[in-house]
Design goal:
The chain has 2 domains: 2-167 and 263-366, FAD/NAD(P)-binding domain (3-Layer(bba) Sandwich), CATH 3.50.50.60; 170-261, D-Amino Acid Oxidase, Chain A, domain 2 (2-Layer Sandwich), CATH 3.30.9. By secondary structure, the protein is an alpha/beta fold. Helix content is 36%, strand content 28%. The strands form 4 sheets. It has a 7-stranded mixed beta sheet with strand order 5-4-13-14-15-12-16. A 6-stranded mixed beta sheet has the order 7-2-1-11-18-17. Bound molecules: flavin-adenine dinucleotide.
């Protein structure tokens, strides 16, 4: 089987790894000119740790674990009001997303054809295969095409329809960037909540930088940097603590990234020979902390079913069957998170409850999946 994958971040390379291990041929087309260097830390727990172990990358990931420790929750004057235990946001293992994507790329580059700096332009499928035309490269025909190209998936737009039919905006937007560590933070971070808007500052590495995260109620913000930074400034102009200094640093900051909090919900994750995986199919939003796990487990199950079922149609059906409940649970929890933050003062009792829930043995992180690793 010859599979074209769009997207070389998490779901795409993980899928290529498992497809190759099951004897299939893969090509990955990625719009960026190289493996994307940016992104906030992402974390893993439960079943995802097992799957990463089966992929043989856990030791290397552990070597790139972030330095983040507990976050101090501060009031508007910078006085500590509580401690946010690491379990809430860092799982069993937390790594910068850029390290994860590079490790997955290194794992797959010898057995997968990578095409950087390109994108699928058209998809046409019939009973024998899918023809893909690209922005730059010559067209090709594949047995299957899988969109692992994120929240704003091009494969979803081409094969299923326009994005607005499948995305559910959550009424919030977020902006992140890196800036010099002028607060001299070490192994720790700060979190400040001002009613319905939040700001976090975290040390990810000992590289003299901190990562800043702003989240606030917003909808329909234009997709250009000036409008996005202006929306952040307006939302936070009355907020105290270090916010004025962080807003001043924002225009000069590196790695600025902005988006609206959205989830993707679809009645089917496949149409004919085209399927979706990761954020493209079932984005849960950054509110969950489980998007990367969903991408990794989605890739694992999709490849496993393709290698065990007689037809790709049955495989796509079984893939959905295995993961629908897991995704629905995560999406429900993420939808409740912004309101939960702003509903009550963030006391130490509330933070301790959140930490205890993150450790729960029955949590969604311990999803039961078939073992496809010994096929
Ligand atoms: C601010 C923020 C914080 C987060 N925090 C966490 C966290 O703590 N824990 C966690 O588990 N998850 C977290 N997530 C979610 C996590 O990053 C995603 O769920 C995960 O990266 C999904 O992986 P993916 O491979 O499906 O998609 P993505 O990582 O979005 O990758 C999509 C890839 O497709 C490429 N692409 C896009 N369009 C095209 C095209 N037309 N042609 C070719 N390639 C294309 C992109 O360049 C990219 O490389 C966070 C996300 C954000 C935005």
């Amino acid at each position: 089987m010859n599979v074209l994958i769009s997207g070389a971040s998490v779901a795409g390379p993980a899928l290529a790894y498992w497809l190759h291990r099951h004897g299939m041929q893969t090509t990955i087309v990625e719009r960026a000119p190289e493996v994307r260097p940016g992104g906030l830390p992402v974390d893993f727990r439960g079943t995802t740790m097992r799957v990463l172990g089966e992929m043989g990358v856990l030791d290397e990931l552990r070597a790139h674990a972030t330095n983040s420790g507990a976050r101090t929750v501060v009031d508007t004057n910078g006085n500590p009001v509580g401690t946010m235990p690491k379990e809430i946001f860092a799982g069993e293992l937390e790594v910068p997303k850029a390290d994860l994507t590079r490790i997955l790329y290194d794992l797959t580059k010898d057995n997968t054809e990578y095409v950087f700096g390109d994108s699928i332009r058209t998809l046409t499928q019939d009973a024998s295969g899918v023809r893909a035309e690209f922005e730059h490269h010559a067209p090709g025909t594949f047995d299957l095409v899988i969109g692992a190209d994120g929240l704003h998936s091009q494969v979803r737009a081409l094969a299923f329809g326009q994005e607005t039919h499948f995305t559910d905006p959550m009424g919030y937007a977020f902006g992140t960037f890196s800036t010099p560590n002028y607060l001299n933070l070490r192994d720790t971070g700060f979190f400040h909540l001002a009613s319905d808007r939040a700001v976090a500052v975290d040390v990810v590495r000992d590289d003299g930088e901190v990562m800043v995260f702003f989240m606030f109620p917003a909808q329909g913000v234009q997709r250009n940097r000036d409008a996005q930074q202006s929306a952040i400034r307006t939302a936070f102009e009355e907020v105290g603590w270090e916010v004025p200094a962080l807003l001043e640093a924002m225009p000069k900051a590196t790695g600025f990234y902005f988006d609206e909090l959205s989830q993707v919900t679809m009645s089917s994750w496949s149409t004919g020979r085209v399927a979706l995986v990761g954020d493209a199919a079932f984005c849960v939003s950054p509110m969950s902390g489980r998007g990367t796990s969903q991408a990794l487990l989605g890739a694992y199950v999709l490849a496993g079913e393709l290698s065990t079922q007689d037809t790709f149609e049955t495989a796509f059906g079984e893939y959905e069957h295995a993961l629908r409940d897991y995704v629905a649970t995560n999406q429900k929890a993420a939808r409740m998170a912004p309101a939960a933050f702003s509903a009550a003062p963030l006391t130490q009792d509330v933070l301790d409850e959140m930490a205890a829930a993150s450790k729960g043995v029955d949590s969604a992180d311990n999803v039961t999946l078939k073992d496809y690793s010994n096929l």
